[in-house]
Design goal:
With 259 residues, this protein is of the alpha/beta class. It has 2 domains: 5-201, 2-enoyl-CoA Hydratase, Chain A, domain 1 (Alpha-Beta Complex), CATH 3.90.226; 204-250, no CATH class. It has 10 helices and 10 strands. The protein has a 6-stranded mixed β-sheet with strand order 1-2-3-5-7-10, sandwiched between helices. Helix 1 (29-43) links the parallel strand 2 (13-18) and strand 3. The longest helix has 22 residues, at 144-165. The two termini are 37 Å apart. The mean pLDDT is 94.
C-alpha cells in the first residue's frame, strides 16, 4: 500500500491530497494512475458534491513530474508513450468529472502541477504561489492532451507565452492571465478553498453537474440538438427545484437531496 495519494471525506466534500511533501508533491507514473482512478471512482459517486485537490506540506501544489523518473520511465518515445497513456488518462478523468473540483494551491504550481490545476473548475491560491511551465529547458513538449485545459483556460496568446518563455511567475500575474480564480493571504488559502467547496456543496448537486456539462458542450461548438436544448428545462422536474424555490419563499436554507 502507498499513501502518496490521500483521500479524506467530510460529508459531501472529498479532499484528494498529493502526498509527497519531501518531493514537493512531484508526480510519478504510479501517482498519476492512482489520481486518475480516485477521480473516476468519485465521479461515479452521487453522494459527492465537491472535490478539493491539494498538495501536502504547504510548500507546493506540485512542481510537475518527478525528474528522477526520466531515466527509467521516460527515456525514449516508447516509454514516454506509455507514461503519457497513464498521465493523459488522468487528465481526461479530471476534465470529465461530473462534480465541481477546487484546486487548493499553496506554493509551487508548475508543469504537470499546472496541468492538474487547470483541469479543475476553480483555483484558489496564496499570494506567494508560483506558476509556470519551464519544460522548454528540459527539451520537453506539453503534449496536446496536457495542453488542452491550459489553452481552454487562458487562450492561445497566454498559453504560448507560458510555454515559449518557460518563465516562473507570481500569483498576481497568474490572476491577470486567468489561471487562478482567487488570491488570498498564504495562511488563508485552505480556509477560502473549503469555504468555496462548502458554497458549492450547499447548492443543488444536479444543477452543478448540469452546468459543468453545458459548459463542456458549448466549448465543443456546433449547433445544439433539440434534445440538448430541452435538457436546459429538465431541472424543473427535479425534487431539488421544488425544495429550492419553496425554501426561497419560506426564507430558509434549502437542503437539497440530489434528486
Amino acid at each position: 500500500m502507498t499513501d502518496d495519494l490521500v483521500t479524506e471525506r467530510d460529508g459531501e466534500i472529498v479532499t484528494l491530497t498529493l502526498n509527497r511533501p519531501e518531493k514537493l508533491n512531484a508526480m510519478t507514473k504510479p501517482l498519476w494512475g492512482r489520481l486518475g482512478e480516485a477521480v473516476r471512482v468519485l465521479d461515479a459517486d452521487d453522494g459527492v458534491r465537491c472535490i478539493v485537490l491539494r498538495g501536502a506540506g504547504g510548500k507546493a501544489f506540485s512542481p510537475g513530474n518527478d525528474i528522477a523518473e526520466f531515466a527509467t520511465e521516460r527515456s525514449n518515445r516508447a516509454q514516454a508513450r506509455e507514461y503519457g497513456r497513464v498521465m493523459h488518462g488522468t487528465l481526461t478523468a479530471l476534465a470529465r468529472c461530473r462534480h465541481p473540483m477546487v484546486a487548493l494551491i499553496e506554493g509551487i504550481c508548475v508543469g504537470g502541477g499546472l496541468e492538474i490545476a487547470a483541469s479543475c473548475d476553480l483555483r484558489i491560491c496564496g499570494e506567494s504561489s508560483r506558476f509556470g511551465a519551464p519544460i522548454n529547458k528540459l527539451g520537453l513538449v506539453m503534449a496536446h492532451a496536457e495542453m488542452a485545459a491550459l489553452l481552454g483556460l487562458v487562450g492561445r496568446a497566454a498559453t504560448l507565452e507560458i510555454l515559449l518563455e518557460g518563465r516562473i511567475f507570481g500569483a498576481a500575474e497568474a490572476k491577470e492571465k486567468g489561471l487562478v480564480t482567487r488570491i488570498v493571504a498564504d495562511d488563508k488559502v485552505a480556509g477560502e478553498a473549503y469555504a468555496t467547496a462548502r458554497r458549492i456543496a450547499d447548492g443543488a448537486p444536479l444543477v452543478a453537474r448540469w452546468h459543468k456539462a453545458f459548459v463542456r458542450r458549448l466549448e465543443q461548438g456546433g449547433t445544439l440538438t433539440e434534445a440538448e436544448l430541452d435538457e436546459g428545462f429538465a431541472c424543473y422536474d427535479t425534487d431539488d427545484f421544488k425544495i429550492g424555490y419553496k425554501a426561497f419563499l419560506d426564507k430558509v436554507k434549502p437542503k437539497f437531496e440530489g434528486r
